[in-house]
Amino acid sequence: MYRKQLLDCHKRIKPYIHRTPVLTSRLMNDITGAELFFKCENFQRMGAYKMRGATNAILLLSEEERAKGVVTHSSGNFAQALSLAAQSLNVKAHIVMPSNAPKVKKVAVSQYGGNIVECDPTIESRSFAAGKIARETGATFIHPSNDMNVIIGQGTAAMELLEDYPELDYIFTPIGGGGLIAGTALSAHYFGNNCKVVGGEPYEADDAYRSFHSGKIESNSTTNTIADGLKTVLGDKTFPIIKKHVHDIIRVTEDEIVIAMRLIWERLKIIVEPSSAVALAALIREKDNYHGQQIGIIISGGNVDLNQLPF
To answer: Is residue 213 located within the same domain as residue 76?
Structure first.
């Protein structure tokens, strides 16, 4: 079932997204002892893989639903993705953003035509505000990660990577709400050749790691991480896929995230946000376990506030 959904989705969203490039680096290979292939979703429209899922979700709405608009809550990248996807398809987008969301992301949402509603920086207040807008306007709520149409859309990045490099042994992704890793795991399962998926997560927001090992969805009491895109928790759509299809989840420190981010900037010559660097940080942390393997790394996004660089 998911195989066909992934294929149909890729065909559906193709006119609205970029097929992003894959970069390699001999130096990165030397550092990790593996052969790395970086899928650069920082070059995606609006600067992150989330354009894929947002576009798919809107395209699957009826004409009547589209006429009433869409609503989501997001600290940044999905806010931008839904705004741009909605603008591309002539649909109104209401975006609930926490008051502490990066300014650069708020500016981008406005530029993409999203109607921003600010709320307190908690999951509860985000959900409440989005629900209120949905009730008042009739807009369809689209969750940033816990929505199968979004998950399938996010999986097309790994699908493209596997089309280009079908013999990958592993694909590493960051984990926030789990939409990217769940979609990646489905693509690896259906289109890979025994390709396994590994997630990277900050120690400071390690709910997915704990959920993976306890067998039930855990939450975070604090999320004091530089990786602002990974502060959300797993949902009832993402978690079962992760439990079934993800090979491992590796936690990393804040220092390891900064080192990996700097490495990507310096060696690949590309701009990535801290959340993107978590996947590489996870591989570097446990590189001895992946020696000699062919490894894809999803660079999830490049929407970074240049006034808030950690180096």
So the answer is: no
